[in-house]
Here is the input.
Amino acid sequence: MVGMKLYDTAKKDYVNFEPSDPVSIYVCGITPYDSAHLGHIFTFMTYDLLQRRLEDLGHTVHLVRNITDVDEPIYVRAKELGISYTELAERETKSFDAIMVELNFRPLFAAPKASDYINKMAMTVKQLLDSGFGYYVDNDVYFDVSKCTDFEDFSGYSQRLLKGLSAMRGGDLDRAGKRQPLDFLLWKSISDSTDPAQWDSVVGRGRPGWHIECSVMSSELLGLPIDIHGGDSDLIYPHHSAEIAQSQGMGLDTPAKYWVHVAPLLSDCEKMSKSLGNLVFAKDLLKDYRPPEIRLALMHYHHRIGGEWQPGYLDEARKLLTAIDRTSTTADSQTAKLMIEKVRTALDNDLNNIEVIEALNEFADSPKTSDKPNPDTVSIVKQTLTLLGLN
Ligand SMILES: [Zn+2]
Here is the structure.
């Protein structure tokens, strides 16, 4: 069996992926308060391609992608809309799922909602309190990062950068009573009865912090350590660094054997975000383009590089798919075999989409060698498109 090489964020190097059986993959999913945009699709498609190639190699894959339905932006947005946050979360999750199906994503092993695991999250926070990794500040619980000797190692970021990112991403560096500025929230106590999301628990009335949600859902559904943990590269710090710290507090070295992150897709030179108003919604593109065209357009980007979204890639993708379809009736099977082998090699090379596109273009440009369709060629082309989710 040909080995797969992946770039591992923790090791900061390429590693040979050694799969378990089944292969477990946990990907941090959406906070359901707005429609799925192209940045989401690009991130999640990386793991969909990984799953497809692993299945192509004969592995069973258990891919879990969670729904962060316990998170501040949902409450804010629901209030703006004048609806309950559960209604908003359910509505957006449903529309996101429909888009994933339309874009031909492989079915998930599980899509857990944070709200279904509150009790277990509170119990884990209690465990961290008992083992001395957690501590109370008033009625909130924080994680003491000084208990982990290597908290900065995973990201490799300087203290200065960690502090900057914490401040940018909702951390409360200067809160009185915290032992270190980078200590992060495990449990937020709620005393305001009008606050929409609160639960009674062993650690008081309130709700879990975001990081503990993923530690618990991945552990409950896949068992730790999982094979591959994925998500947006923004999650390296604080979210995934916090998950590693939490798992150390739970007696494990790491929650995952491999970490694969996806760089952002940009729009107007900025990461797509609601606050910047530069979102490109999948549902809008689906009015004019077929799902394989959208997927192939996104394959013009390497997952670790990302880049500025170029709408022109959609038309290029359309042309390329038409050309592949045409060539599948005029090329010999050897040319098709060469294409699928190149595509497989490209995916095994740290999911190199750029090399995949090259292999597809080479095939599309190959000279006519037959006047009538060769069934073997047609079948291999179909197999290639299925492997890439372009069928
Ligand atoms: Zn997560």
